[in-house]
Each structure stands twice: as C-alpha cells, then as structure tokens.
Amino acid sequence: KITGLVNITFNYIMKTINYSRDLSSAPYTFLYLCAACVIFITTCGNLLIVISICHFKQLHTPTNVLILSLAFSDFLVGIFVMPIHFIMLVESCWLFGALFCALYNMIGFQLTFVSIHNVSLVAVERYIALSNPFLYSKKVSLNVIFIASLMNWAVSLFYNFALLYFNGNFTELEMRPGECLLVIGEVWSAVDLFVVFILPCATMVILYIKIFAIAKRHAVAIRANNKDRRSKDVHAIRSERKAAKVFGILVSVFLICLVPYYVCILMADLIKSQSLYNVLSNILTLFYLNSAINPIIYALFYPWFQKSMKIILTFQIFGSDSSLKNVLRVT
C-alpha cells in the first residue's frame, strides 16, 4: 500500500509539473535564472577570494589561510552541489542515477563538514591571537594553520566515507525512481549530529563570546593606560573592534543558515513525516546560500578584498610584481 501510494504521488507530481510547463514556462524559467544567478555569485565570488589570497603575498597570514580554505569549499559547493540541488528542487524529483546520488551525497557531506569546521577553526585561531598574543606569534605560523586546514579536509573525507559506507549508501545502490534518499542509522545519526553540528557550533558561540569580552577589555585597558598615544590607540581599538565585528557577522550568518537545517533534521527523525522531509530539502537551500553570502560579507567589510578584487577585474594582476602590491593600505 505504501509503495502504491508513493507511485501515485510521484506520478501526480510529474503530471502537475508537465502540465504547468505546458501552460507557461515563465515561472519555470525564472526559477532556473535565479538558481543560475546564485551559482554565479557563489563560484565567482569565492574564486576571487581564492585568487586574492593565493596571489598577493601581503595576504599570506594564518587567518587568511583559513579564509582561503573556507572560500575554496564554498567554491566547490557552487560548482558541484548547487547545480544538482537546484535542479532537484525545480524538477521536484531526482533525475540522475543511484551511483550519482551516492557521489552527490558524499560531496555534499564532505563540503558541509569542511565549511563548518573551517569556521570553528577561525574562532579558535582568533581566540588564541587575542587571549595569548605571545603564544600566537611563536606557535601559530602559516605552516601550522596550513597543516590544520589539510587535516580538516582529510578527516572530513575519512569520516564521511565511513559514515556513508557503513550505512550502505555505497554498497546498496537500489533506489526508487525520482528519489535520492540518504540512509543513516540512529547511532550514526547521533554521532554525526554531535561531530558536525553540536561540537563546532558550541565552539564558535563560546569562543566568540570570549573574543568580544577580550576585545572590550583591551579597549578599556588602552584607554586607561595609554593616554599619551591617543591616536594610535584609537586606531588599535577600532581595528580590534572591527575584526571582532566582522568575524561575529560571519559566524552569526553561518549559524542562521545552519541551525534551521539541523533543527528540521531532529524534527524529521522524531515525527517521521514525508512533508517534513520535503521542507528539509528546501531548508538545505538556506545552508548552501551561505556559500554565496560569505563573499558578499568579505566585499562589504574587508578593504583588502575590495582592493584585490579591483586589481583582478582590471587585469592588473598580470602586471610585473603584481603579487607585491600593497592591498592592505586603505586609499
């Protein structure tokens, strides 16, 4: 009975889609145009960040290595995940095979894991830099952060392969037409919730609360003890506050895009409703949109990105010694 009901529902959906296309293709075309715009912003915006940090030597800092890793994962989301996800949303069904479904889930899980833990690594790096600057200058180097980023990608690959393999998503590739369902057991689901959501999100929230407290304490100390160097101290205060503000915005937007998805996952596991699973697929779009929002945040709040983007888009990047240009100076 359940199988028959699913088939009837699927046939009804396909007939409705075909009928709506016959009546008017304008809404259908509009959806694909919107999807194409989001994909374009995601890929081009994050590609500009990747090129900027890789090319300009002034931007080779530990913090920017983590931003580079995050931008690269967001770029891959725009290339590999977003197109398939938007096609599935617009068509209201899975148009590809079982093997491609397993590959799509693997890539999606890999990039999700990397993005979430990249942001938490940024929180750890910023906290160490503010709370213990002497330890940061001695221990936190480009090589250390680069190895940490590589480890993040490697651990993500190993973890997500194990997650999907031991739940039969690679070995049992039979699936109903029009569906790309992910099967995860209760134990693995609880582990995944803790590893990918609870642990990194708790790290972000706790550390950024401490970061803002430290930044405020530094500002008060500078005002109290360094009145003879007022202009320099004011600049330092503003720099600290701006850095804390930008990273706070980055984390806040990230959590706004991430939390609804995992809340719906918990509700879907408890309620077991098909309509809730459909809502879950739509809310997943909000999380993927974060990959398009990040470059906009950088463009609005990072002068170095604004200047490097101008150099890249005007093809000055091909000039001699362009990698040595001062992109940190505000003109």
CATH homologous superfamily heading = Rhodopsin 7-helix transmembrane proteins
Instruction: Return the domain count.
Output: 1
The CATH topology assignment is Rhopdopsin 7-helix transmembrane proteins
Listing every helix as H and every strand as E from the N terminus to the C terminus, the arrangement reads HHHHHHHHHH
Summed over residues and divided by their number, the pLDDT gives a mean of 80
What is the alpha-carbon Rg in Å? 23 Å
State the helix count.
10
**Straight-line N-to-C gap:** 70 Å
Shape: globular
Q: Please mark out the parts with pLDDT under 50 across 5 or more consecutive residues, or reply none.
A: 1-10, 12-17, 19-23
Summarize the amount of helix as a percent range.
over 70%
Q: Structural class of the secondary structure composition?
A: mainly alpha
Strand content: under 5%
Under CATH at level 1, the class stands as Mainly Alpha
